[in-house]
Design goal:
Layout: H1 3-18, H2 28-42, E1 46-50, E2 55-59, E3 69-74, E4 92-94, E5 97-99, H3 103-120, E6 126-131, H4 139-146, E7 154-157, E8 163-167, E9 169-178, E10 184-186, E11 198-203, E12 206-211, H5 226-235, H6 243-250, E13 268-269, E14 272-273, E15 278-286, E16 290-299, H7 305-318, E17 322-329, E18 332-333, H8 339-352, E19 359-361, E20 373-376
Parallel strand pairs: 3-6, 3-7, 7-20, 8-19
Antiparallel strand pairs: 1-2, 2-6, 4-5, 8-18, 8-20, 9-16, 9-17, 10-11, 11-12, 13-14, 15-16
Helix pairs in contact: 1-3, 5-6
Length: 377
Amino acid sequence: MEKEELKNRIVEDILKLVSIESITGSKGIKSCQQAVIEIANRLGFVSSMHAKDQVIIIEPINASSPAKLGIVVHLDTVPYDASEWKHNPLGEIDNNRIYGRGVVDDKAAIIIAMYAFYLAKPHFDWQIIVGSCEEGVWTDMQDYLLEKPSLPEFLVTIDGDGVQNGCRGYLDLELKFKNVHKLSICVPNAANNTVPGIAKAIVGNKKISVKGKAVHSSVPENGINALTRLCYCLGTQVNEPNEFLELMEILNSNYNASCIGFKDHPQEIGKQFVGITSVCPTNCWTDEDNIFVNLNLRLNPEVDKDEVNAAIKYISQHFACETEIVELTLPSYIPADSEQIQKMLFAYEHVLEKPTEPTFAMGVGYNASLPNCAIFG
């Protein structure tokens, strides 16, 4: 295939995927999956469906396990309002650029990964793992791991910027307390990953509203938590012991989860900053009998499932509450000085002609959905 013909084919295939509206959970996911499989088959690869048809595995014919390298991508996108776009959100070329929902995140990466293996014809076996739920709850990779697949020795997701060797984990932990003082509390427009900017309560005939500063919950120290401030005010009006208000008082301006049973791990590994295990109450609601609160935690890379379980046990016993894990993604970490990360840094500098350093994310990325996975974008 001539260079110009190859370029045109790659652009055509990217536009083909972008033309299919594939919002997470929509019917368009299936159509986009079929288009990916057709392109893979045309390039001479083998495709198979997994995880209740949420994941496509693309690999060379007669591949052996485990593969040496895996590329992780996703075909789902977030919703869009066409009136806010200057270009066609379902694909358009303007001034040698491709515009459209999902071009960068993450449909072009699917096509580029396939053509990279098609052209390079590496001597080792590989896989392309195509997910479909990255923009929502990662049931695609959760269900895929339940199949206990033979995963590649090293994985890279083309769904981020630069070379990223890890990220903190994510935990939404819902606590349920007895509403012994018949408190009425709410967080308007709450989101589990956001520090509350406003919180309200009714005590007797009195309405209380407290304002704070809303920020992303991965950096709670940059905000002002209206919920914990509200609960501090309530605590001054409740003279009897109250485990819920006790917990909220502990977490008022205290974001280190070591105060609720997690270990106080070092904030640096080598010379790389990886942060603490942080905790932030992000939502609260009540009924006549119970108070519910969501704790959003970002897990230091040294935190494992055993530590999470031990901390949850501590919280349950110390604060007399019931606990439920709403969402858990363990941290991802690959040493910055590892052979794989160093090769990625070399490739980055070789192609872009500028050096870079590996980064560690305070938030959670798609690389955390599978073990031994880094970001290369």
